[in-house]
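Lab notebook, design round three. We kept the backbone fixed and only want residue identities now. Task for the bench partner: fill in a sequence for the structure below.
Input structure tokens:
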């Protein structure tokens, strides 16, 4: 089997890359180890940056997004029982975010690829990448119990944190930057109308909580928990009770709507970056190259930003034999990755209870939150990062 771009992984990165290349007549093959149902069934990101929304709409993927996406013009930070709102449009020259689950983005991307009769193979697990030094790398993969070879010009490693692409780069080439956090997120999806029309990020003495949503009838909530905790230790009643306590406020009324929990899981929290994001004819994009704690709602948006840069680089190469985009890919992506890494780390440090924190540390967090929600400069900084910095951010 031969193609121009061999793509490993059918998450947001791999599927969007395949779609954007096909719009320019560039051939690709997507290999996905899991089944289509499994890929669609994963509950992950919820917030799309303005740049992500604009990219999906410009690529003809805006249909359901426009009808079902929930435009949000701000978030609420809740601390010490005080609720303060950060407005986005007034602080970012009109930018907003859109709540539209990653699941829906995946459904739209798979539908577009299958309508275009794309070579998108599920339950096709890549096992090895050979010949990266040559101009014809080969991806070995297994499908239906048979071994296959995919010969390509370039390989896009869109196979997430646990994939093989990053591991195909020699250790002495890669530099890994990593931070594990001493807590995790317990996330629930519930058949309960959102209790607020915007997201609420709460810092409490019991730990972090986040109130989000997926639709007018489905809420998505998170609780900070111990990274060694087991979801079996949490009854539905305990989850709702803890959420209700952490989202309570001193002023104004807030009632947490409860309902049937249809999904619950615990996700570890880490910051992770590898440099460089390119090795010979292998390009890493998305979670294969970087992981952020979801506090800043950056994970999927960073994957999309990488693909906006990588797809343009491939298009410039094939249309004008211009290699500048390919040669600068890693450096271009990593600048924005680190800016998002900083913001995600900052939001996480601001909102979570750290085991070693003392009363002084808690008071510092409260002062930081007070300043971040009062100072025009601080609110502007938070808002411009949350809605997403431009790809070529110049301040
Ligand atoms: P993905 O991990 O989505 O996709 C990689 C794909 O490669 C997978 O489908 C995998 O099956 C496949 N693959 C792996 N190895 C392979 C092989 N050898 N052969 C073929 N295929 C292979 N981000 C947020 O912004 N907000 C959130 O709330 C949030 N919650 C998250 C919760 C969880 C549990 C996880 C894991 C991530 C969460 N994220 C969140 C981040 C998430 O949204 C990612 O940033 C996003 O999925 C990244 O997309 P991809 O880079 O495409 O990687
Ligand atoms: C979500 O809705 O899943 C979500 C929203 C914002 C975050 C993280 C997760 O920061």
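Proposed sequence:
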């Amino acid at each position: 089997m031969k193609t121009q771009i061999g793509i490993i992984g059918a998450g947001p990165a791999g599927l969007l890359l395949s779609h954007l290349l096909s719009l320019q007549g560039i051939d690709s093959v997507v290999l996905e180890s899991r089944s289509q149902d499994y890929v669609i069934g994963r509950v992950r990101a919820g917030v799309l940056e303005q740049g992500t929304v604009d990219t999906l709409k410009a690529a003809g993927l805006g249909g359901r997004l426009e009808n079902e996406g929930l435009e949000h013009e701000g978030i609420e930070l809740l601390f010490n029982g005080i609720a303060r709102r950060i407005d986005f449009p007034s602080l970012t020259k009109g930018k907003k975010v859109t709540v539209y689950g990653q699941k829906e983005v995946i459904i739209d991307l798979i539908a577009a690829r299958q309508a275009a009769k794309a070579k998108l193979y599920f339950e096709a697990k890549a096992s090895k990448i050979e010949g990266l030094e040559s101009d014809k790398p080969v991806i070995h993969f297994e499908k239906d119990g048979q071994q296959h070879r995919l010969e390509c010009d370039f390989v896009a490693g869109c196979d997430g944190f646990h994939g093989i692409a990053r591991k195909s780069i020699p250790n002495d080439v890669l530099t890994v930057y990593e931070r594990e956090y001493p807590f995790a997120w317990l996330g629930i999806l519930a058949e309960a109308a959102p209790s607020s029309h915007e997201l609420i990020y709460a810092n409490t003495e019991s730990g972090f909580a986040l109130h989000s949503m997926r639709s007018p009838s489905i809420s998505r909530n998170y609780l900070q928990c111990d990274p060694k905790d087991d979801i079996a230790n949490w009854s539905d009643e305990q989850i709702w009770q803890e959420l209700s306590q952490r989202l309570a406020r001193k002023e104004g009324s807030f009632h947490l709507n409860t309902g049937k929990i249809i999904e619950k899981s615990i996700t570890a929290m880490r910051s992770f970056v590898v440099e460089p994001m390119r090795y010979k004819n292998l390009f890493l994009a998305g979670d294969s190259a970087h992981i952020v704690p979801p506090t800043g709602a950056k994970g999927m948006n960073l994957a999309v930003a990488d693909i906006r840069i990588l797809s343009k680089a491939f298009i410039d190469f094939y249309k004008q034999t211009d290699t500048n985009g390919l040669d600068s890919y890693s450096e271009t992506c990593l600048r924005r990755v680190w800016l998002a890494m900083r913001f995600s780390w900052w939001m996480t440090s601001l909102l979570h209870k750290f085991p070693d924190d003392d009363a002084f540390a808690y008071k510092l967090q409260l002062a930081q939150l007070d300043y971040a929600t009062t100072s025009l400069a601080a609110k502007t900084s938070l808002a411009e990062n949350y809605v997403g910095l431009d790809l070529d951010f110049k301040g």
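Keep this in mind before ordering anything: The domain at 5-70+99-177+270-352 is CATH 3.50.50.60 (FAD/NAD(P)-binding domain).
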